[in-house]
Request: fold
Amino acid sequence: MDEPGNATAPLGIAAGEAGLCGDCINARIIETQRGSTFLQCQLSFADPRFAKYPRLPVRICSGYAQRIAKP
Reply:
């Protein structure tokens, strides 16, 4: 369970750590076998303007589209 004030985004990353990517439909979490976690931008495969692994937290992004939370 999350600590108060440390809400997690739908992707499971602390909301403040990822910035916009935390609830973007174009973001995907990549977990390695060694336990490292990376956020991958799916837009990077079609558009070179987007970094494959953006530097977090992302505060401004032209490709941002908010993920709709399930009730």
Notes: The radius of gyration is 12 Å. The CA atoms of residues 23 and 48 lie 21 Å apart. Confidence is low (pLDDT under 50) at residues 1-7.
